[in-house]
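Retro notes - structure team

What went well: the batch runner handled both jobs without manual restarts.
What didn't: labels got mixed up in the shared folder, which is why I'm recording both outputs here explicitly, each with its sequence directly above its C-alpha cells.

Job 1
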Amino acid sequence: MEFSSVIWNPYFKIDITVIEKVQRRFTKAIFPKLTYPVRLSRLGLQTLEMRRTLADLTTCYKLMSSLIDIDCTDFFTMSTVTHTRGNSRKLLKHNIVNFRDANTFHNRVINTWNKLPESIVLALSISCFKRRYLHLCVMLLMIIFSLISFFYFFIFLFTCVLFACIIVLCLSGF
C-alpha cells in the first residue's frame, strides 16, 4: 500500500480515504472495539498518509544529502532567501501550470520540507532524520490533543455555569 509511494502518491481525498480504509479494516480485525487512532497506537503504526509523507521527506533528505546517486538539482532549486522562518535548506517553489504537476514528488514535498525545523533537515543520518520527524509529529499531536481537551473542558465548564444559573433562576421564582 505504500510501495513506491513517492511516485504514485494519491492526491484526491477519495483515493486517500479508500486506501486508508484497508488499514482501518485490518486493524479493526485485530482490535474490533477500539477507535482507529487507539488501534494504530497499540500496533505502533501511523496512518498511511503520514507514512507516505515520511517517505516523501526521507527521499527529499536523501537527495539533499547526496545519499542517492541522483543530482538533487534535477528536482529542486535551493532558495536564496535566508531571512524567513524554517530551515537553512529551504527549497524554491516554482509556479505550477496544472493540477497533475502540482502533485508530483518534487512539487508536493517542498512546502512540508520548508516547514521542517533546522534540527531535522540537518540530521546526520536517515534514522536520526526519521526519529526527529516522528518526534515532531508526536509533539504536534499532543499539542492538538491538549487544545481539544481545553476546548471541551471550557464547553463543560460553560455548560455547568449555565445550568447552575438556570437552577438559581428557577429556584428564585424568576
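Job 2
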Amino acid sequence: MRNHDTSLKLATVAAMCGLTTRRVTALATEGKIERLHSGCYSALSVGEYLRQRHEAPPAADDADGRMKAAKAALLEKKLAEQTGRLIDADIARVAYTRSYSAIKARFRSIPARISARLVSCTTTAEVQASLLDEIDLVLRDCAADPLGGDE
C-alpha cells in the first residue's frame, strides 16, 4: 500500500466511477486500479484512473461528454476531500488566523515574563542570552502547539 493511501470498498469505487462491481474487479485485474486486499481498492489509484479516463476534453458540441467530464471532476474532488488531499479554504484560513494570533500573543508576552530577569542583568551579553532563551522557548512551544492549546 502506498503512503497515506486510503482503501475504498468495492461498492464505493463502483458508485464513484459509475461502474458495476464486476467492471471494477476487471479494472483491478487489468492493472488499471490497485487492489489492496479482498474487496478494497487504493483510493489514489482510483483517482488516477478517473483522471486518465477523463483526460481528453469532450468536444464542445458533446453535451453527454461534458456531463461525464463534470461528473468525473466532482467525483475526483470528493475523493480528494475524503483522502485528506483537499481541504476547505475557509477552514484553512481560520486555522491559519488562529495559529498566527496564538504565535503573535506568545511573542508579545515575552517582555512581561522576563522584564524582572532583565533588570538584574549586568551585561548586554546576559540580556541577549535571556532574550534568546525566551525566544527559543516560545519557538519550541509554537512548534509543538501552534494554536496555543485553544483547539
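One thing worth noting from job 2: Strands lie at 7-9, 35-37, 40-42.
We'll revisit the folder naming next retro.
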